[in-house]
Amino acid sequence: MSEKKQAGGLQGVVAGQSAISTVGVGGIGLNYRGYDINDLAYKCTFEEVTYLLLKGHLPTQQQLDELKTLIWSKRYIPCKLKQILETLPKESHPMDIMRTVTSILGILEPETKSGQEYDISIRLISIFGPALLYWYHYSNSGIKINENTGKDSIAENFLKLYHLKSEIDPLVIKTFDVSLILYAEHDFAASTFAARVTVSTLSDFYSGITTAIGTLRGPLHGGANEAAMQYLEPLRSIPQADQFLNSRYQSKQLIMGFGHRVYKKEDPRSPIIKDFSLQLSKTQNGDPTLLAVSQHIEKRMVEEKKIYPNLDFYSASAYRQCGVPTPMFTAIFVISRMTGWGGHIIEQRSNNKLMRPVSDYTGPAKKQFVPIEMRNKANL
Ligand code: SDX
């Protein structure tokens, strides 16, 4: 048994090699396959980034066109899946719907041979939004939506299916698309690492993704964007924000959407999503009060605690101003991170080794066995 007490949570542990993204590596910021997140967010679409993460390089125009055509063709929801979605109660959490959709597709369209990772990833990325929204509209109002919205991007398809509108504000589409780029990949984040552990046993692709979804659900990880919106919702003035923060400081409770295991200063994704959330706040359907309160909380947390917002904090106000309901925030994270999870599963399988660490044993020394007829409290 080693003397040194570990920080816990595998903090600082290098758990393997990966060539997909840099997170806080030696001050070079966040890069996906070498490309800076600012270039990707401001100059690419989510479909280009999807191709980059799954194939390892940015697409040519022809490759991108082929990917878009594939996405449009993979949106359809099988009848059996629709029948199951129609049985799920409206009180279900969207993350449970995403996990269920993955499991059902793993049964209806199983992984039967090697080399299917790209196709299954695109299938899931394409169907996740339509399936979630099929369940949402059916369980809430009995409407059976047509999941096919033509040659729309993943972002526009989701927004049209949620709002049941044929026209969406271009800035809302752009903000949503940028959020998908920002959420797409982040090295050995808990959910990604969980997926890699699962497939390292030679388990199937869908099992890896259901593991990842279950892991992402927690408020210390993907669930933080929903948790942040929940506390921001009632704060409609700076004094109310101060009262909230002071009580959280006093009770030593976490403020969700802040802090990061790797970034101990700014999360490079936060200023990007904040930029779009601020742009939205200046439009007709924007919420300038939400942004003013958010910026005030950020200012105090940075100045008083030296704790910075992570991607989830301003994603909350961005999604709210896109009109998306809070319980769907983490489900959107799933659609996006499916690209990173797919890339990591491909990478893990390309040079696989069963992942099986050891613990630092802290239990009792060897004991003498006592048969049950002689056992009493004294000799247990
Ligand atoms: C994501 O890994 C990834 O890359 C994840 C992600 C991705 O893209 O996949 O980036 C997405 O999950 C972002 C993180 C979302 N989670 C939250 O916003 C939840 C709130 N954040 C905290 O739970 C925390 O910051 C963690 C879990 C994210 C990271 O914490 P660590 O590295 O385990 O550090 P810690 O909890 O030990 O905190 C160090 C100190 C503690 O104070 P002390 O006990 O030393 O006095 O900082 C404090 C913490 O209490 N602290 C916070 C805080 N975050 C850290 N205090 C109040 N509010 C916070 N949010």
What does the model show?
This protein is mainly α and 380 residues long. Helices cover 55% and strands 2% of the residues. The chain is built from 16 helices and three strands. The chain has a three-stranded antiparallel beta sheet with strand order 1-2-3. A hairpin with a 2-residue loop joins strand 2 and strand 3. Bound molecules: s-citryldethia Coenzyme A (SDX). The site of s-citryldethia Coenzyme A (SDX) has 20 residues, from helix 15. Pathway: Carbohydrate metabolism; tricarboxylic acid cycle; isocitrate from oxaloacetate: step 1/2. One of its GO terms (cellular component) is mitochondrial matrix. This is Citrate synthase. It comes from Paramecium sonneborni.
Summarize the structure.
By secondary structure, this protein is mainly α.
What labels describe this entry?
mainly alpha; Cytochrome p450-Terp, domain 2; three-stranded antiparallel β-sheet; single chain; transferase; Citrate Synthase, domain 1; Citrate_synthase_AS; 380 residues; binds s-citryldethia Coenzyme A; 2 domains
Helix and strand arrangement:
Elements: E1 21-22, E2 31-32, E3 35-36, H1 37-43, H2 46-55, H3 61-73, H4 79-85, H5 94-108, H6 117-141, H7 154-163, H8 170-182, H9 190-200, H10 205-216, H11 224-232, H12 238-251, H13 270-281, H14 288-305, H15 311-321, H16 329-350
Antiparallel strand pairs: 1-2, 2-3
Helix pairs in contact: 1-8, 2-16, 5-6, 5-10, 6-7, 6-16, 7-8, 8-13, 8-15, 8-16, 9-10, 9-16, 10-16, 11-15, 12-14, 13-15
The chain binds s-citryldethia Coenzyme A.
S-citryldethia Coenzyme A is lined by residues 9, 23, 186, 189, 220-222, 224, 254-261, 307, 310-312.
